[in-house]
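MOLECULE: protein
FOLLOWS: sequence and fold
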Amino acid sequence: MTKDGTYADTNADGIANVGDVVNYTFTVTNTGNTTLTNIAVTDDNAVVTGSLASLAAGATDSTSFTAVHVITQADIDAGYVYNLALASGNDPKGNPIEDESNDPTPCATCPVDPACATCTIVEIVQAPSIAVTKDGTYADTNADGIANVGDVVNYAFTVANTGNTTLTNIIVTDENAVVTGSLASLAAGATDSTSFTAVHVITQADIDAGYVYNLALASGNDPQGDPVTHESEDPTPCATCPVDPACATCTIVEIVQAPSIAVTKDGTYADTNSDGIVNVGDVIEYEFTVTNTGNVTITDISLTDPIVAVSGGPLASLAPQASDAVTFTATYTITQADIELGAVYNLAFAEGTDPNGNPVDDESQDPSPLDPTDPLYEPTCPDCTVTILEQNPGIALIKTATFNDANSNGIAEAGETITYNFTVTNTGNVSLSDVTINDPLPGVVVIGGPINLAVGQNDSTTFTATYAITQADINAGSVSNQAIVTGRSPLGQEVSDESDDTDNAGNEPTVVAIEGCTINVFNAVSPNDDGSNEIFYIGGLECYPDNQVQIFNRWGVLVYEVNGYNNNDKSFRGYSGGRVTVNKSEGLPDGTYFYFLKYKRPDGSVSEKSGYLYLSR
């Protein structure tokens, strides 16, 4: 008997599967010289159908028997179906006659089973195959809401046996992650999604790239011990992520970039000339600290400032969370406008480039900002670096006096005046406004102003004052007074100074000596209404109101006498006023007379003075 087997792809899927079949055909030949009866075919690996009642000597039958073997996984894993049938019959005497089958079309390339050299061998084509998908998920390890070095990508793997053979010793390797897990075997068509996991620890390079590209390799052995491998694919590919042409099937996990930069700017005043006061030409030294506050490397960092030239840089690169406080500096020269303002307000601008070539920038902040309640706080620029410049407003006043001898008699008289001139100087480092002068001496009238004064400016023409001398001043022998000048700084600070009469070194009062209490007799009287020498004038007599004046003619007759002579309503005007006298209504004749003056001094002593008096009209 011969037995021929043919593989049949039952489901027509083009691959040998469990459930496919091997169809067998049998050819039975009576090779003896007697008729055989009750011929049967049996097979321990197939279901034989058919029967044959008899077969004549030398006859052949190839249609009576068929058989079907349903392919098992073991068959596929073996790669072959080995099969042996047995034909049996009876000779005419009833004795059994039998034969084991032979393969009429033996497979020349198939391995022969030594235990079954005549087995019919049907090759089952093996198609070992494996597939793996790798899905990555970013995990914020420290839960700070931003991707950092040390965060991870967790990978989940699904391994599928996509072939028709059992696979064994399955492993997954990854050049960019640590894979854990193992799988001893995986049946054809089976899937495993729990055995393997992997973790990739995120690096700065990953964050700078914005993505983690990763490829795993699944490998196993087919039944013959040959390797079966497959590179992973991403089951949930990122639709917006750029694909690496060199790794089209890579699993891509997007790492969210958060580029950010911050700069602080600190200003320190420097007293260039060491005079202890802020002046034009002093400087402010600026220091800058640039910090990468994001999670990606920033490159080509530069600083600009609208009011000062920044030196240093550009800074080639700055790692996340790193700071640089040495690269950039600047020096600003103070102007008078700055001093007037009381501070320099300044804002710098930092700019760099993120790994994608996009600009990253920030306006500077003051590391020690002013409180919003501070008068110098600027709400329109809350982030400005504010360097306070100390204002030192100052003012000085010199007051000089000139006595005005109205009648040019050399004697101070009540009603004559003193003229005051003032020189005001701005001695501070800021301009002054609303500069005014006040003199507390009653009767002094200051005119002029208010004025403004620039730094260092002096004014000696705006302000003047006039004072009318009183008898009390004459009695005192001098007029002493001190004026006060006030002004206001740009920040509203009021400054003042009491006057000095020379160089403002000691703020001493201005003292005007009045020579008005020295008796000075003017012994010529010409009462002719020409306004000159109309009365007998005794200078200084106002200081001694307790007095008596007597005038005698040349014969010794008293022609004028009065107590309390005062050069005013009690004064000799060429008319008689004595006890024994000529007609009072008529003027005395021109001629030489004799006066006698007696007056009491403040100490109670009495002084006398006498002499000739000349009367002429």
The first strand starts at residue 2 and ends at 8. The CA atoms of residues 448 and 462 lie 5 Å apart.
